[in-house]
Predict the structure.
Amino acid sequence: MTTIAIVYHSGYGHTAVVAQAVAEGVTRAGATPKLLKIENAAQDFAPLLEEASKADGIIFGTPVYMGDVSAALKAFFEASSKIWYTQGWAGKVAAGFANGLTAAGNKDNALGSIFVLAMQQGMIWVGTGLMPGNMEGNSKAAPEAMNRLSYSIGVGTQSDNAGPDVTPPSGDKDTARHLGERVAKIAAKLSA
Amino acid sequence: MTTIAIVYHSGYGHTAVVAQAVAEGVTRAGATPKLLKIENAAQDFAPLLEEASKADGIIFGTPVYMGDVSAALKAFFEASSKIWYTQGWAGKVAAGFANGLTAAGNKDNALGSIFVLAMQQGMIWVGTGLMPGNMEGNSKAAPEAMNRLSYSIGVGTQSDNAGPDVTPPSGDKDTARHLGERVAKIAAKLSA
Amino acid sequence: MTTIAIVYHSGYGHTAVVAQAVAEGVTRAGATPKLLKIENAAQDFAPLLEEASKADGIIFGTPVYMGDVSAALKAFFEASSKIWYTQGWAGKVAAGFANGLTAAGNKDNALGSIFVLAMQQGMIWVGTGLMPGNMEGNSKAAPEAMNRLSYSIGVGTQSDNAGPDVTPPSGDKDTARHLGERVAKIAAKLSA
Amino acid sequence: MTTIAIVYHSGYGHTAVVAQAVAEGVTRAGATPKLLKIENAAQDFAPLLEEASKADGIIFGTPVYMGDVSAALKAFFEASSKIWYTQGWAGKVAAGFANGLTAAGNKDNALGSIFVLAMQQGMIWVGTGLMPGNMEGNSKAAPEAMNRLSYSIGVGTQSDNAGPDVTPPSGDKDTARHLGERVAKIAAKLSA
């Protein structure tokens, strides 16, 4: 059975909602998701690292703070240096998602930071594999549209200044489900 | 008198409209804009390089093709290697703008490519210096809002699949005017 | 039989030497390499695109000019927009290599540009999967050391101001062979 | 009198040595350096933010951990969001330096993360403005050469697995001095 770890940090619950959608996508592909939540930069990361190491793929998620991954996720990345020394994650599939208040807001920079960690760890990177949400122009992409903001490196979602029960919109959550499903299918092939 | 060169490529006229708005911003600051249009990757770039070299600052603009600057602009960058050998643009102010069909579409990657060229040339980089278009969330940012998509490295504009007379929207053009004005003011200080 | 296309541009022959080493690595993995050389930004790319489309994976190579991929490679990327419209390369494996005169020289930016193209095309990215060339510090990494400069996103090679028969050094070519082998093995698994 | 804050984190003392060299460069330009050391990701950043806010320019420094800035520096960036809300650093000069064990090691990614923070804060970015350390090829650049590794976005230094009294080499420290001097001179012009 293919298992996919979803390691994420969430400040106000929006990124957690996206992580949940990613997990649903993993399940849809017939694989098992394992949600692993980071609490803060100072916690003991050993249990999370151990769980993540058992998975066939790891999807990393972050809120975008000042244009990059959160310090809490970065602290997890640094703790993963123990695994790096033995290249323990080499060959596993990796992907990323990032949530923020704005359409751009350097979300691609946050996704790029996740990508670099994955490359240092010898992982194999899977992006969204999605066309733009609306080929007539992004201003016409409905909140329900898959990849409405048109990210390719990873999933970029946008939540308004409201509770995680109402935002980000359904299109963003569908995009997250798609990523979970895609990663799980590729991980299944690679670990066959 | 401070002069700012605006070196840009435009495939279907949308980026040219943004370049025009940048020029208006330069004028608003009491400086002189010089619009320098790139036609294609195979042209003779010597006249453009000579004109750009006379300016106190250079703002580079591009359509986003496959997630990066156009090959035509990249060809201009390569032709600027002659100037690089003598660091002829060192200390000049630089900035960038990128236009595409989508909200994200790796526009930040295109702006980042312009930034790297500017750094190789020893230039000084000026971003938008703008807060997000709407602090309640980007989905609420009107087409008339300054920095509605929330770019910081440079100006990221979005045009729909329609003529340059109707798209990108006024907010994007205002953002471009702001960049032109900001660059001109900083260049004036630096060349004082 | 797994086939891997190696699409590259080379200004003075050094990147061609690296491309040849990548091809040797592909062969070492029991797969078939297909070397596809780009001549310039203005050529007809249709035959190259057709050949590349037949492969199970595509490795892109470039000289680093002014801190980024060459305009010739960027022109090829733009021509690949025809394939992008149907996501014809989706699911294929992708990787990159970049050669330049210096250790850094924004080589990572050039590799990042290749990565973005691959993501737009829905491809799956494979990096070097290599530890640093010398864990005692890069200044101690011999020219014969694998990954002596310590790149992870893709292969970064460095050639001196001399002919491609003597530079880049053997360590860089070994690193390129490793990438070819790694990509071929992963592509074989994914297309099984 | 122009003052330049140098905000840095240092794990084993090597980045601190580079920070000291940056400060010497600031002094050489006739300006006043203010060294502000970050201890860890969980500290109270209010005093550092207050000091940094008094300066005409801020140079940020970091060790490279897993290919990016340290979590401690990222935590400082997040704490600077209070200043971002009022764009309190807008118009100040910014620059960066990053130290690591290897020549590449995604140092440019760490410098890029610093750059993005500076852009979000509305700052003006100054790179090295330096040619490669040796135009015959980086493998010929002596440890005493300025910009021996050829970074342009910011200063990239490399220390071996030895004490900060012997590594990074003198060329790297000279490059750091150059950056401090360059930033101070530009900040003096802009605040005149």
